[in-house]
Amino acid sequence: MIFVELNKFCGILRNLGNVGADFSDFSFLLYLCAVFLGLLLVLMMVVWCFLACHHRSMCFEKVVYTEISWFGEAEHSSGAIGARLTTDTVAVRSLIGDALALLVQNIATVVAGLVIAFKSNGELALLILVLFPLMGISGYIRWKSLK
After folding, report:
1. Which residue in 94, 101, 120, 142 has a CA-CA distance of 20 to 30 Å to 83?
2. Beta-strand (E) ranges in the chain?
3. How far apart are CA 124 and CA 132, in angstroms?
4. Low-confidence residues of the chain, pLDDT below 70?
5. Rounded distance between C-alpha atoms, residue 12 and residue 125, angstroms
6. Confidence (pLDDT) at 15
7. pLDDT digits (tens, 9 = 90+) for 48-84
8. What is the pTM of this model?
9. 125-to-25, 29, 117, 133, 134 alpha-carbon distances in Å
10. From CA 79, how far away is CA 85, in angstroms rounded?
11. Which residues contact 55 (CB under 8 A, 6 or more apart)?
12. How far apart are CA 65 and CA 79, in angstroms?
């Protein structure tokens, strides 16, 4: 089964160079790219979950092997330590996981949109490319105004 799909994929790649390439072949390639990016995002999320778990266990290990006198201070109570562990782990996960996943998803969306636009109508795609810097400038101005 996989060899049939691989043979079809190679035939599509050869056929894309032709002037009369079928749009369904192109959409099949886009589908394969979307599946690949989806799997990549899932694997990245798994890695980020393992990273957060590893961070939490390392911090907890440091707390366990700390001297008893350290826990006598008010700022080192068990509730404060538990809250700090949770807060730090959530901060690491949001810093690495969510922001990077959103960045990868947005880049993939823009690239796929441009590929579809160039395949459908090249002149309109060039117009969109010319407007990208203007959209970036407006986003920057809006971001500055929210601060």
Report:
1. 101
2. none
3. 13
4. 1-27, 29, 97
5. 23
6. 58
7. 778 778 877 887 788 788 888 877 787 877 788 888 8
8. 0.46
9. 20, 19, 5, 14, 15
10. 10
11. 88, 89, 92
12. 17
